[in-house]
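Many introductory courses stop at the sequence. We go one step further.
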Amino acid sequence: MPKWKRYLWFFYLYFRYDFPEILRNVRRTIWNKRIKLWWYRLFLRKSEFDKSLDTDLDALMVMNKKEQEAYFKDIFERRLKAHNRDLAEEDHAREN
């Protein structure tokens, strides 16, 4: 294979596979890891089964180990608060 065809082939492979993955990672970093997580942490949800308390795998893909640990700790605390809130609402409903 001539040298120019090899460069053309590498160019094709980069723009076919690597470049779209880089764009997806940028979107995951900006949308999933920053904006969406900020929105989910903004206020306490009414139910412990709210979609904001699900694990966001797209956000996890672009986090390092330290960020993942902080994310899991945060989501655990938010789930626990929502669970306690549900229990308190059930107790209040039984009393009345």
